[in-house]
Each structure stands twice: as structure tokens, then as C-alpha cells.
């Protein structure tokens, strides 16, 4: 047993391989499970406490005891979602009436003609849509639909996305892939250019939405593009660590994407153990987790991508912030370059698409140690309120290296789910690390950090970011820093690190007393733009002040603040003739 193995949080229960559909991309319907051998609700009582359970198939609604399965699932997890074709509308609506907190995801593979062709059943689209509309009428909130994209339906994907927006329902995507239980080995996208272009279009549309969840879905869809191109996963697969699948006869697998030609091995059968914990912590389960670490497949599916996107949040977050900023400026995603694989210490063999051996022994014996994120456990030195909701957070540095303008992830020690990215207010030349943080009403992390006391432990991970001062040694180079609120942080770091630069700092704030955030900055190079009282250097927004300025086209202009401020300032600078190459942006989000 590996003593570091924690208990899982997510589970998928494959209730049956019986199915009413006859899909072109899945022949599961040709190999139905024996109804008498399928796992029973009472056997699922062994499951541990979880955060999320997905009930899937086959078609779960061919199970006559589906309500008993759902009842057990809700005892184990607060959120339960059923994946279905939506064909059995009446049964689905009846279940939802009994369990109003249930989530339902209907698989729809295109508009009616394409969907019914790929699903192999007439009226499949109509029944699926009827199910969704019926659930909406009942007031069920956790509903949506998803598509598995292939050569035949990528253009319909965009229409379904627009339909989901109009219906205000969740929309999920997946790519054509192979699996042991599909009983097919030829699921491969051939017209890559068309499919990839449609995925890019979807990604651009997601980034224009106002909800952060959509922006992270954009990152997920870029991961699908990366998968279609045959590249290694953007983030490692850690299936079998926080999630698992139970197949209909009780075997527990790390994921549902296994193939015999690569490898397929069960972690154990739930029927053979008195408790799930005994199975999960067994030597066989550890062996399977080692196989996952060097698995040749490069799958990118929500079940295994979502957990690592959350675990290594700083990487998707950095991408999201950068791409959302570009989207606000009307700039689409670069179609010529995908993100590089994020190195978080994964084994180099994982996802290399080799055939046959997983090479576990070789990889482990070589003692591979990838370059991982710098992680520092340090202590709070001071926590000083500068205004009613802005505080200066200071911690011990302990030799931590970073550049002015970069950020790190900060959270209470060992509470990895409670961490967020904050930019340095201090400079690398200083002995301690400081961060300017605004407490926001909906921000759990900022409120937690605010109440930490000197001596409390925090974890620092990073550094990240490429928001850097340009030509800092060129004394004739002019710099204009434009900030709103706590966005002044990186500029204070720039100025402290490079005190001889020629700069002007414009600081958008509501009240004059918020000038406390600029403590230590030369008042001859600082203009406070105040909007809610009569104090400060200027009455009005930073955009109003900028309109009075004469700015040379080759003046470096740096913008740091909320995305809306960033967009309006960026547009104004371009109108004033500043070269786009000389405008640098760093969006700030409240946590």
C-alpha cells in the first residue's frame, strides 16, 4: 500500500452495457451485459463518501432499479449526474420528480438528421430535446447536453452550442476515441482541419462569454485540439488517484478509455472486498496507478482532465487570463500554435502513443524527476489593512526566487484547494515577499488570507507570468503604468526593482484614501484618478486623464486591472497612436 494515497472524490458507475441506441461510433449495443450479473444497488453501499458521482452506461434508464441506484448515490455524494441518450423521456422525468437535485446530461450528436444517423435510431434528437425541455419545465437546474465530435458532426457542434446558450443549459464536448467497451478500434478523425477549425471557433465563442466556467471550457477544448493532433496531454493523466469507474460486473478501473492493445487491468472487484477502502489501498490498485503514470494513451476526456485542471489550476488559469484579455480586445486564439505541455513532474513516457508495453519498471527504475513548480512553506510576517477592504500581506521569503511582475499561488498551508494567484507587490531586491490583496464579498481565498496572523503557515507555489518591464536599463525609454485598484501591485514591484526608470503611474481609485496602496512611490511620478470624492490628483477615470496626455508611439504602456478597464484603456491607447507592440496587459480578477 502507498501511504500517500488519498481516498477518491469522483466516481462513475457504468450501470449496464445494455443500450437502446445503435451508435456508429460505439458497438456496445452488440455486447449487452447479463441483467442478472449487473451490480446491485446494495453492493454500491460500499462506496466511500464522495463529492461527485456520474451514473452512465450503456443506457442507465434500461435499469428497472435506476431509482434505487440514484438513492444510494445521493447517500454517498452531494452531486449526482446521469448521462443518457434521453430516449426514455417519461422515465427520466419521473426520476427527476423523485430526485429534484439530480443532474441530467443528454448525449446529442448533432441536429436531428445527423444525430439520428449517428445514433442509429429515428426520433432520437426529438426525444432528447423533449427530455431537456421537460426537465426545464419541472425546474430541474442541473441539466445540459453534450456531443462527441467526429468527422460527421463538427459543424453541428457550433449550432448545438448556440442552442445550449439560448436554452441556458450546460454544453459539453468530447472527441472521437476508442475504448475497450466500445468494441471498435477505428474511431479516428480524418478531416482534422475542418474539425479543428470548428473547435477553435467554439473556443473563441466560449471566451466571449461572461462566466469564468466557459473560459475554462475553452481551455478544455484546446486540449481536445491538442489530442486530435496526436500530442501529449497538456496536463498529466492521474486517473485512479481521485476518480474511478465501476463497470457493470463490479470491476473498478481508473478510467473508461483503456484499450487491450495498450493495457487494461482492474484495480480490483468491489464484490471481493468488505470495504472500498481495502480495494483502493491494495497493492493491485497501486500497481494500476503506476500503469496510469506511464500509459501510452493521450486521452483528453472531462473525467480525467477536470481533476488535473483543478489540481494544477495555475496553468489553465494563466492561459485563461491571457486568452480572455485577448478576446476582450477582439483578438482570436492563435490557430498556428498550441500551448506546450505543462511540466508538473509527469513521467515522460505518458501519452507517447507507443504500442505494447507501458514501460512502468523502466520509468520508475530510472528515478525520473521532472522539473516541478517551486513550492515553499513559509510564515506570515504581517497583515496590514490599508483601506477598509485592501490589505498588505507580507511573508518570509526564505530564498524564494522571482521576477518583478510575476505572481504565485498562495493558500493556507496544506489546504491545496484554497489557493489563488496573486502578483508580487514587493521587488526581488527586498528581503520579504509582499502582496496587495483586496477582500471581496464572494472571494473565499482573500477572506481566509485576511484573517491569518503573524506566524501562521502559508504555501507559496510558482512563480508564474510574463508581465515584465521592457528595456529597464535604457534610461531614455519612457514607461506609463496604468492601474485600477490593487492592480498597482506589479508596478510598485517594477519601480522598486528599477528606481531609475523614466515612468508615470496613473492609478484609478474610488476614494482618495486608497492612495495608501501607493505608499513609497514618488508622488512626482504618481497621478491618482479619483471618481467618488474630491481628493486625489485628478477627478475622473484614468481614461479621462489619458485623453489629456500626449503619448509617443514608442512609449511602453502597461495596463493592470479588471478586464473591462483593460479593454477601454487599450482601445484608447491605440486611438492615440501607441503601437500595439508597446502595450502590455495583465488582467486582475477578484477571488
Features:
21 strands; alpha/beta; 591 residues; 6-stranded antiparallel beta sheet; 9-stranded mixed beta sheet; 16 helices
Shape: elongated
The percentage helix is 25-40%
**Biggest β-sheet strands, sense, barrel:** 9 strands, mixed
Gyration radius, rounded: 27 Å
Count of individual beta strands: 21
Structural class based on helices, strands and sheet pairing: alpha/beta
Terminal residue distance: 38 Å
Poorly predicted runs are: 356-372
Strand content: 15-25%
Record the strand order, biggest sheet: 6-5-4-3-2-1-7-8-9
Q: How many H/I helical runs?
A: 16
Describe the overall structure.
The chain has 591 residues and is an alpha/beta fold. 29% of the residues lie in helices and 20% in strands. It is built from 16 helices and 21 strands. It has helices spanning 66-76, 89-98, 112-119, 124-138, 154-167, 192-207, 212-228, 276-280, 283-293, 302-311, 314-328, 360-365, 444-450, 489-497, 542-546, 563-575; strands at 10-14, 52-56, 79-84, 103-107, 143-149, 170-175, 243-246, 251-253, 268-269, 374-385, 390-396, 407-412, 420-423, 432-438, 457-464, 478-484, 502-509, 526-530, 538-539, 556-561, 583-587. The strands form three sheets. The chain has a nine-stranded mixed sheet with strand order 6-5-4-3-2-1-7-8-9, sandwiched between helices. It has a six-stranded antiparallel sheet with strand order 13-12-15-10-11-14. Helix 5 (154-167) packs parallel to helix 6. The model is unreliable at 356-372 (pLDDT under 50).
